[in-house]
Design goal:
Layout: H1 25-32, H2 43-58, H3 63-72, H4 77-86, E1 98-103, H5 106-110, H6 113-124, E2 137-142, E3 155-157, E4 160-162, H7 167-193
Parallel strand pairs: 1-2
Antiparallel strand pairs: 1-3, 3-4
Bound molecules: FE2/S2 (inorganic) cluster.
FE2/S2 (inorganic) cluster is lined by residues 103, 105-108, 145-149, 152, 154.
């Protein structure tokens, strides 16, 4: 893994939705059994690698899981938790089925990203880092440019970027994603019942 300093926290790549709202600490211990450290200086690389593996497996990292990482790598939970909360790739809460990034870089901010965030709060009842009660949608506000300023204001819903968003178009985008996924699951269920 690259040095921590070279990772850019403004371009989060959220782990896929896993549906795992609880973290099995025995699985975290099993993951950690593959990590070994030689000295404290190298520990940061290992901490980030370990957090990445836990994050990808569960979709998020709990405080208890961070404690196990710290213990296994001979460091403090404060150090592990500081790294966990610094990088936007990592989540400390389970994410929803759909993950929405709203760019809050300068261009998007000037062209209305604040109104999008406020709309999500009003319409879906969630703020930055939160997930709706039905676990369908998580919001993450990115305080950095997503690199497609020509499309400002820009959002990224799951794997797709969408530009020139308004509150109305964003609602339509989210509703389509939720309905599309549910229809796909129902279709898969119908086929497996055949
Ligand atoms: S500021 Fe949002 S894409 Fe550049």
């Amino acid at each position: 893994m690259a040095q921590a300093e070279t990772r850019h926290p403004a371009h989060p790549v959220p782990a896929p939705y896993t549906g795992r709202t609880a973290i099995d600490l025995d699985v975290v211990r099993e993951i950690m059994s593959h990590f070994h450290y030689d000295d404290f200086e190298e520990a940061q690389e290992l901490i980030l690698s370990a957090l990445q593996e836990v994050n990808e497996h569960f979709g998020w990292v709990s405080y208890e899981a961070a404690e196990i990482v710290a213990e296994a790598l001979g460091t403090t939970v404060n150090r592990v938790y500081a790294l966990l909360t610094f990088y936007a790739d990592f989540r400390t809460e389970p994410r929803g089925v759909h993950h929405l990034l709203v760019c809050h870089g300068v261009s998007c901010y000037v062209l209305g990203s604040q109104a999008l965030v406020q709309h999500i709060r009003d319409h879906y009842g969630i703020g930055d880092g939160e997930t709706t009660a039905d676990e369908q949608l998580s919001l993450q506000v990115v305080n950095g440019c997503l690199g497609v300023c020509d499309w400002s204001p820009v959002v990224k819903l799951d794997d797709s970027y969408s530009g020139h968003q308004t509150p109305e178009s964003l609602t339509a985008l989210i509703n389509r994603a939720i309905a599309g996924k549910q229809a796909k699951e129902e279709s898969n269920g119908a086929h497996s019942a055949d």
